[in-house]
Amino acid sequence: VGKRLILFHRVRDLEVVEALEVSTGEALWSTSYPTTYRDDFGFDEGPRATPTVINDHVFTYGAEGILQALDFASGKRLWSVDTHTEFGVRKGFFGAACSPLVYDGKVMVNVGGPAGAGIVAFDSNTGAVLWKATDHGASYSAPIIVTIGKQPTALFFTRAGLVAVDPEDGTVIAEFPWRSRLGASVNAATPLVIDQRVFISASYGTGAALLDLQGSSFVPIWTSDEILTNHYATSVYANGYLYGYHGRQEYSPALRSVDLETGSVAWTVDQFGGGTVILAGNSLLILRERGELILANATPEAFQPLARAQILSGVVRAFPALANGTLFARSERELVAVELSQH
User: Fold this and answer.
1) Which Gene3D superfamilies match (predicted)?
2) Computed over its alpha carbons, how large is the radius of gyration of the chain?
3) Which of the ends of the chain has fewer CB neighbours closer than 10 A, N or C?
């Protein structure tokens, strides 16, 4: 944001938010709080939710459900809420990981609490609860705000499925159940909205769906578990085609291009391995889990890599950030800034 990079990470038994100068990496301020979160599956200890920066505030959501607002200029804590304690939320498989959605003075989070506290909106200035909606458990997907028809709509891909909510008061507009029959499963990819239609995808035998919101119902255009099953990395869309991962991370997923309209697979690279993909113009920036960055054409004709570079060591699962021609990426122990040349 501007000349600052916001970093949210774990340092020993602290969850730390830092502002870094983008050209040098120099720390401008740092704010932290204690955490006892431990991952039950041998992965990193979090946090996993991307910070949200808006109106001179930084909003973060920690692995144990600590939602906080900081002053962007100084890092001063403005308010915080322990959502897991306040709403009786269980730890879950990988802790809390819903990035805060900020819109019209509200901070909305898929908290995952019982008794109507599945999705909760907080006042962005005070942290006071404004409304609650659904009994849906928490997912690992980031919610988004879109305009469907003429109505601002918040889309949450919760543990139970897709929910469209009126951000003003939490009224549920429509729901579409989309969850694996496996108990040990998650929804993690963020919904994509393309020409008033919504694409969702999950692994664990769940699959992908292209939906049309008609009144109070999501109507499927197509669904399949054989096309583009995103485990944790959200796909991207360009010129009629989706690009993303098909299959679970631990089984070395394929990289694919898929026709959005029909669901037909344009091309696939089997056993590509896990990672993330973002869109930059007409190019794909693919960051593999072992730290290799690949620049490729976003074309349905074939997988066309243009350049490759090893930019990180260790395990890389965090989405990178692209701003002003510089890619910021991190592994468990490294943070790098990579200047991208024009292609």
Assistant:
1) YVTN repeat-like/Quinoprotein amine dehydrogenase (2.130.10.10)
2) 19
3) C
Find the Cα–Cα–Cα–Cα dihedral 78, 54, 9, 110, rounded to 10°: 90
DSSP string, 191-224: PEEETTEEEEEETTTTEEEEEEEETTEEEEEEEE
> pLDDT confidence of 150, banded at 50, 70, 90?
confident
How far is 326 from 25, CA to CA, in rounded Å? 13
Of the chain, the end-to-end C-alpha distance in Å amounts to 24
Q: What is the pLDDT of residues 257-293, one digit of tens each?
A: 999 999 999 999 999 999 999 999 999 999 999 999 9
Locate 245 and state its tokens: 């991962």
- Mean pLDDT, all residues of the chain: 95
Q: Position of tokens 């008033």?
A: 196
DSSP secondary structure code for residue 249 in this structure = G
Domain ranges of the chain: 1-103
- Pairing assessment for the beta strands 172-177 and 192-194 based on DSSP bridges: unpaired
Q: How far is CA 155 from the centre of its chain?
A: 12
Question: pLDDT tier at 155 (50, 70, 90 boundaries)?
Answer: very high
Predicted local confidence at residue 215, as pLDDT:
86
**Contact status, residue 145 vs residue 151, Cβ threshold 8 Å:** no
Which pLDDT score is estimated for 182?
A: 82
For residue 44, report the phi and psi dihedrals to the nearest 5 degrees.
-70, 170
- Select the CATH number that applies to the domain covering 1-103 from these four: 3.40.50.2000, 2.40.10.480, 3.30.565.10, 3.30.2010.10: 2.40.10.480
E strands, 118-205, are 119-123, 129-133, 144-148, 151-157, 161-165, 172-177, 192-194, 197-202
91 residue type, one letter: K
Of 182, 180, 204, 188, the C-alpha closest to 139 is 188
Amino acid letter for position 182: L
Question: Which stretches of 9-138 are DSSP H helices?
Answer: 83-87
- How far from the centroid of its chain's Cα atoms is residue 111's Cα? 15
Residue 2 has a pLDDT of 85
Q: How confident is the model at residue 342 (pLDDT cuts 50, 70, 90)?
A: low
